[in-house]
Amino acid sequence: MPASTVCPPPAPTSSVPLLQGWRNGFAALGPAFFTELAPTPLPAPHWVGPSAEVAALLGLPADWQKRGDALEVFAGNALPAGSRPLASVYSGHQFGVWAGQLGDGRAILLGETASGQEVQLKGCGRTPYSRMGDGRAVLRSSIREFLCSEAMAALGIPTTRALCITGSPQPVQREELETAAVVTRVAPSFIRFGHFEHFAARGQHAELRQLADYVIARYYPDCRGQASAYAALLRAVSERTAHLMAQWQAVGFCHGVMNTDNMSILGLTIDYGPFQFLDAFDPGHICNHSDTQGRYAYDRQPGVAYWNLLCLARALLPLIEDVEQAQAALDSFEPVFVDAFMQRLRAKLGLREARPGDEALVDGLQRLLSAGRVDYPIFWRRLSHAVAANAFEPVRDLFADRAGLDAWLLQYKELLALDYRAQSADLMLKTNPCYVLRNHLAEEAIGAAKLGDFSKIQTLQGLLASPFEERAGHEAYADFPPDWASHITISCSS
Ligand code: AMP
Ligand code: MG
After folding, report:
1. What global pTM score does this model have?
2. How far apart, in Å, are the Cα atoms of 249 and each of 56, 339, 376?
3. Minimal-distance CA residue to ligand 1 atom 11
């Protein structure tokens, strides 16, 4: 089915100069890549939350939210003049199995603005790729995506961004009846591994090449000068993905649905669903209730990323042509991951350079944290303060195995002594966040929002925007999770 024949392109419904200078590079790829269609209007929209930082990124005017057209545009009820809304087609492997054609089933790309950022509305109605879905997103999952996108950005972790959420009284059926919302997502590109798999699987090699050339020209220009630009692209994506995995593992982030259609070609965290930041450190933790086999457990993420890169390599093979070159490009993943992960961990430990014994130190720590199911963010924050004050009792209090911890601390202090302590503490306090978006914090904000109170979203957003800065009066946000947190179940349903 040619993707473009399903719906005719809509005429812009109003001349809205809110976002200007649309370039629409993706739309220029042509009809094999998408279907042009307008969002489905969202009834009686209201604001739920904006991100001032993303508004600035897009170059929106300071009063953008107050303008009558903004709410209509970001609810999908009016089109900015110059945008060319479309839903893109991709395929992918879901839970290790080829799923065939997928695509933007509920997201519509408005286009790319002069800022170089693409703007996408998620949850704005059915598209030709919706399959059995209703094209909507619920308020609950939209709040999780909005808060986490911005929290990740503040932690320095590559991610798609979120400009705002608009809510609506429109009912949406999930496990229970919920209400609809639209998240405006922003990124330089929303292209996924699955876009490449789509054309490779169909033997559409001309489109495959066109897509690769577009991605190289726009996002990986350095690859052009290489002997094989396509092998260079695969290497660059492998390396970016390795860096991303190092950051996820270091901060304790579990994505939950690392299907190849949820892997960004730019190495961004994308498609926030049943994600979770670790509370207690459990390497085999499974955050997605629907992941019965634990395919996407915390400690499997780097391995799964590599498996996903293998799928991308297979898709790019008609362009690379040489299996050995493709393998060599993939081979960069592991050393880059190990190196980047150790760099992150050394920073978390306040160790300013690589020294013999630091890998054993990290291994030993992971064993202790795991054996004691020690709270991951609190451990790191307490360790940072302990180094600053040279007083380790609050850290010892977290462990039942005191002897084990003391032996580790002895080893640690030996390495630490090679650095200047005040500088180490400073590095640690800027590396180990005080505030992370734990599941129970998101749940509390969602619960209030469902009752029409969006202030908890704002408070949380404010804390997560400066996650290393302790704020008086907000100690509860940095505390252990309550007992009920362990009973929260987050599934793929969103
Ligand atoms: P996900 O696992 O959320 O990344 O989604 C997998 C596929 O299902 C993608 O092609 C989505 O666009 C599509 N999808 C998920 N939820 C819906 C929905 N409510 N309506 C339409 N399509 C959906
Ligand atoms: Mg997805």
Report:
1. 0.96
2. 30, 13, 11
3. 105
Nearest to 180 by CA among 126, 127, 123: 123
d(CA 126, CA 396): 54
User: Residue 277 is inside which H or E element, if any?
Assistant: strand 276-277
Phi, psi of 162 (to 5 degrees): -135, 120
Mutation test residue for ligand 1: of 101, 141, 261, 491, the one with most atoms within 8 Å of CB: 261
Residue nearest (by alpha carbon) to ligand 1 atom 8: 105
The conformation of residue 434, written as its DSSP 8-state character, comes to S
CA-angle at 195, arms to 190 and 198, nearest 5°: 160
d(CA 473, CA 280): 24
Of 104, 261, 279, 358, which residue is the catalytic one? 261
Is the separation of the CB atoms in 16 and 80 below 8 Å?
Answer: yes
SS3 call for 107: strand
Question: Read out DSSP for 205-264?
Answer: HHHHHHHHHHHHHHH-GGGGGSSSHHHHHHHHHHHHHHHHHHHHHHHTEE-S---GGG-B
Greatest distance between any 2 Cα atoms in the chain? 71
Active site residue 134: no
Q: Ligand 2 centroid to 30 CA: how many Å?
A: 22
CA distances from 108 to 74, 81, 88, 183, 288 (A): 11, 15, 8, 11, 26
Checking DSSP bridges between strand 86-88 and strand 276-277, what pairing results, if any? unpaired
Digit-by-digit pLDDT tens for the chain (494 residues) are 444 444 444 444 444 468 888 988 999 999 999 999 999 999 999 999 999 999 999 999 888 999 889 999 999 999 998 999 999 999 999 999 999 999 999 999 999 999 999 999 999 999 999 999 999 999 999 999 999 999 999 999 999 999 999 999 999 999 999 999 999 999 999 999 999 999 999 999 999 999 999 999 999 999 998 889 999 999 999 999 999 999 999 999 999 999 999 999 999 999 999 999 999 999 999 999 999 999 999 999 999 999 999 999 999 999 999 999 999 999 999 999 999 999 999 999 999 999 999 999 999 999 999 999 999 999 999 999 999 999 999 999 999 999 999 999 999 999 999 889 999 999 999 999 999 999 999 999 999 999 999 999 999 999 999 999 999 999 999 999 999 998 998 988 88
Whether the Cβ atoms of residue 133 and residue 105 lie closer than 8 Å to each other: yes
- Residue 273 Cα: closest atom of ligand 1: 3
CB-ligand 1 contact for 271 (6 Å cutoff): yes
Q: How far is the CA of 104 from the centre of ligand 1 (A)?
A: 7
Within 10 Å of residue 86's Cβ, how many Cβ atoms? 28
